[in-house]
């Protein structure tokens, strides 16, 4: 049987020629589970849920980090801001605020200029 008439046979490609010469290699990835489940209420009183979307410094984490939808992020932002206004959450979580800083030694006396 002639090579050109073979059914269901792929022709061999020349070495070095691929289908996607500049494309990325396909990697398997595992989709992360969303942090908000179907039954979770996005509310300013739900501190357990809200605390997952705030950084250690007290800032609201971005959608890229939290994997929230746009609607969920908007609701979460409103809930966090309400909780801050009602004093449930601090505006800034600065733990080093009240720590005493090390004092630096200061020289006493008159400074002399080099001439």
TrEMBL record:
Its main location: plastid. GO terms for molecular function: small ribosomal subunit rRNA binding; structural constituent of ribosome. Residues 97-108 have a biased composition (Basic and acidic residues). Residues 1-30, 96-115 are annotated as: Disordered. Pfam families: Ribosomal_S18. It comes from the Eukaryota. Signal peptide: none annotated. One of its GO terms (biological process) is translation. It is found in: Plastid, Chloroplast. SUPFAM superfamilies: Ribosomal protein S18 (SSF46911). Keywords: Chloroplast, Plastid, Ribonucleoprotein, Ribosomal protein, RNA-binding, rRNA-binding. InterPro entries: Ribosomal_bS18, Ribosomal_bS18_CS, Ribosomal_bS18_sf. The keyword Oxidoreductase does not apply. PROSITE patterns: RIBOSOMAL_S18 (PS00057). Belongs to the bacterial ribosomal protein bS18 family. PANTHER family: 30S RIBOSOMAL PROTEIN S18, SMALL RIBOSOMAL SUBUNIT PROTEIN BS18M. Part of the 30S ribosomal subunit. This is Small ribosomal subunit protein bS18c.
């Amino acid at each position: 049987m002639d090579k050109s008439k073979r059914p269901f046979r792929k022709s061999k490609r020349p070495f070095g020629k691929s289908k996607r010469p500049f494309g990325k290699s396909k990697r398997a990835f595992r989709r992360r589970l969303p942090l908000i489940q179907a039954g979770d209420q996005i509310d300013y009183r739900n501190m357990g849920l809200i605390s997952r979307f705030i950084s250690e410094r007290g800032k609201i984490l971005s959608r890229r980090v939290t994997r929230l939808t746009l609607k969920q992020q908007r609701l979460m932002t409103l809930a966090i801001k309400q909780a801050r206004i009602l004093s449930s959450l601090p505006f800034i979580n600065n733990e080093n605020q009240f720590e005493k800083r090390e004092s630096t030694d200061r020289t006493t006396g008159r400074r002399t200029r080099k001439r």
